[in-house]
Design goal:
- With 475 residues, this protein is mainly β.
- The chain has three helices and 27 strands.
- It has a five-stranded mixed β-sheet with strand order 14-16-15-25-24, with helices on one face. A four-stranded antiparallel β-sheet has the order 8-9-12-13, with no helix packed on it.
- The longest helix has 7 residues.
- The two termini are 28 Å apart.
Length: 475
């Protein structure tokens, strides 16, 4: 069985004390806030579960590994940590955590998967997906809740994909499946592949350490980059900014057309519930779930958690804390955070999280379909002026042969029009492919037949991109 090198096993030491960095996406600059001013200073861990919440301006980080590569001056061996907020004081690492707009004004965190040291003696054990941990960010308390349904096998080390938790449950080195966890019913639903059966994909399609980002009102999920566990190939994103797109409500928000992987559509204004979910919870693609609690009820002691899911948070609209360029290039006056709530979240949300394999890889969507009415319509865009992108028309072209798993030494050549969009799993490493003329979303886009362009933000100095004509990101 083949495994990639563990990143913590490579030589190298942290040369400088930990420093908190911030990147301003409008002004294209980094700021260094120095070391945290708390006593005792935090142990600096890698491969923990972190989440940033733009709605509240908060960030959270749970667990991880402390090594001499993550923290300068660390002289002990590789140690799993229970620093920061933990559900049970047990050291944890390589799990996943997301924020959901439920409960009170700071929302809630959901943590799942990864590995745990149950005896606090260096033992590594998988954290099964038949239970998840929910953190009340306002009340500063954890709840543990059992799950039901088609439960994923144990997985670790994931942004997308991951390394196996030994021993594997099945004779496989990689997975490439997609599961959905519905809340507050805490039910797992399998969406891909073969959501009506138990099909899996060959191990060479599995990879880990990709990134997943919800876009367009959480209707679509970008999967970018990553490393394959059973081949020396790399994802095409390294060379051509290729991205794989998963429709959370199936293609074109139809809900029940059974097509999840398809080209990105910039003109979507809402998300919907897929049939795989509402066939389990009741309701339809617009929400209205009938199953609003776990099978058998909430676990003992979880009445506070049940009450949290019965509340809808009001979250204050955030405003900039520094001058923001206007559409004409002149900065607007610095604004202060609003002291009063200005908008109410709708009663449903979809949050993306990637989960790595109990032998490899899987993508898990954590989905919250609340008791009510309609799926989320994201609030109108709050980013003004420089952060605005205008889209006209629609993209043409599609992908034949997925933009996935090509050798890092292989360049695909010219881009050609394709005919059929596919998932990132249907290519054999090193196989030839044809890529659509759909450009990456971060590049200015001229739409076929219209000559309209989706512009990047205007950056200081008049440039439209933080990259020069000779500098491009490398994955």
């Amino acid at each position: 069985m083949k495994y990639p090198d563990r990143p913590w096993g490579s030589p190298g030491f942290a040369q400088e004390p930990y420093s908190l960095l911030s990147y301003d996406i409008i002004y294209d600059k980094w700021d260094d806030f120095g070391s945290p001013k708390i006593a005792p200073p935090p142990k600096v861990a890698s491969y923990g579960a972190g989440v940033g919440v733009s709605e509240t301006g908060m960030g959270y980080y749970l667990g991880g590994w402390v090594t001499n590569a993550s923290m300068s001056g660390w002289s002990n061996g590789r140690t799993m940590t229970s620093n920061f907020y933990t559900p049970d004081k047990q050291p944890r690492a390589e799990g996943g955590m997301v924020w959901i707009p439920a409960g009170d004004s700071l929302g809630m965190l959901v943590y799942l998967g990864g590995i745990v040291d149950p005896y606090e003696n260096g033992t590594e054990a998988p954290q099964p997906f038949d239970e998840v941990f929910v953190f009340d960010t306002m009340g500063n308390s954890w709840s543990t809740q059992k799950t039901t349904g088609i439960i994923p096998q144990n997985r670790r080390h994931y942004l997308w994909g991951g390394l196996s938790v030994q021993p594997p449950v099945v004779n496989a080195t990689s997975f490439n499946d997609i599961y959905i966890l519905t809340l507050p019913s805490f039910t797992w639903v399998k969406a891909y592949p073969d959501h009506k059966g138990n099909a899996t994909l060959p191990p060479e399609y599995g990879h880990y350490s990709a990134s997943c980002n919800m876009v367009k009102h959480m209707s679509q999920l970008f999967v970018i980059g990553g490393t394959y566990t059973d081949t020396d190939a790399c994802d095409l994103a390294v060379n051509a900014w290729a991205m794989h797109n998963f429709w959370t409500g199936t293609l074109h928000n139809e809900g029940d057309n059974e097509t999840y992987w398809a080209l990105y559509d910039p003109d979507i204004t809402k998300n919907v519930v897929p049939a795989d979910v509402y066939n389990v919870t009741g309701g339809n693609k617009d929400g209205g779930a009938k199953v609003v609690s776990p099978k058998g009820g909430f676990d003992t002691g979880n009445k506070p958690l049940q009450d949290l899911f019965g509340r809808r948070p009001e979250i204050a609209e955030r405003t900039p804390t520094r001058a923001i360029p206007s559409a004409t290039g002149s900065p607007k006056a610095t604004a202060s955070p609003s002291p009063h709530p200005k908008s109410k979240l709708s009663v449903g949300a979809i949050v993306g999280i990637a989960v790595g394999g109990a032998a490899g890889l899987a993508l898990v969507l954590l989905v919250w379909f609340y008791i009510g009415k309609r799926v989320i319509r994201r609030r109108e865009a709050r980013r003004h002026s420089a952060m605005t992108q205008v889209h006209h028309g629609s993209y043409g072209g599609s992908v034949t042969g997925p933009p996935s798993a090509v050798s890092p030494q292989t360049w695909p050549g010219s881009w050609t029009m394709g005919s059929e969009p596919v998932s990132p799993q249907h290519a054999t490493p090193h196989q030839a492919f044809s890529l659509s003329q759909v450009p990456p979303t971060e590049l200015p886009t001229e739409h076929p037949g219209t000559h309209d362009v989706s512009e990047l933000p205007q950056y200081p100095g008049g440039s439209k991109s933080p990259f020069s004509s000779t500098e491009r990101p490398h994955g």
